[in-house]
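Bug #77: duplicate submission created two jobs. Keeping one. Sequence:
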Amino acid sequence: MLSKDLERIKDLQVRKNVPLLPLTSFRIGGPAHLFLVPRTLKALEHTIFYLGNRSISYKVLGQGSNLLISDKGVKLVMSLAALNRIHSTPGHTFKTIVSVEAGCRLKSLISWSIHNSLCGLENLSGIPASVGGAISMNAGTNKCSMAEAIDAVQFTGPDGSCWFQRNQLQFDYRSFRLPDKALISAARIQLDKSSPDQIKRNVRNVMRKRRTTQPIGKPNAGCVFRNPPGDSAGKLIDQCGLKGLRIGDAEVSKKHANFIVNRGKASAVQVMDLLEIIRERVKKEADVGLVPEVSIWGMET
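Kept job's structure:
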């Protein structure tokens, strides 16, 4: 039996029928029939080796942002939340290299960098992602992205773990090419020295802008569509008069049209229906095909 075999792996926590809704920023989704939490890199390697040898597919959960999960849930989910350690080493010239495990929250890494007088991540403040998730989607703003801070990335797959240097990695707009059957388990990030007060001021300025322009405080999955080349998805949706459009408790944000907010008990089906209406309207009125930025588990786009 799958669960019994997995329980034999040292430092791997195996849980059944775990609700995923409270583990997502959208507060939407059914349960994980099996929920795996490796507590060490070795446990992660052994788990991926076991699953890979049996061609068993699984989903990887970070902080649950930028994610829409089917109301019926998914079969197998692996959480890297226990892999969250950070440490630093002197880098070349004036740089400091920070090694961080993929399950670490981006917010925790930024707080740690402030405490250690290191700057370079402030513009990513307010993005509710894990480090691994932020790298895998090349999270960012119109000013910067994760790619700019990366020195190296560690991948873990059925054959074990290995590091790839920055010049071996392929980042694109809101995407990152992963090796086949591998996941991100850690990264090395280059940061500069600065004063904690200056870093804090930068973070406050970024967060002030986010609160002004985004529906912070209401459950959402961040921007739901990628910006088309040279254009803004939010602007296109707004120009189609779709702000405030609502299906059940799923609503196009009145503050930022590229956000869908959960007003209480929105279902994944309601969000999917809303996404389809938006895509059809923008295609009809602006002749632009919008591409979802949000990851979708268990449903077809």
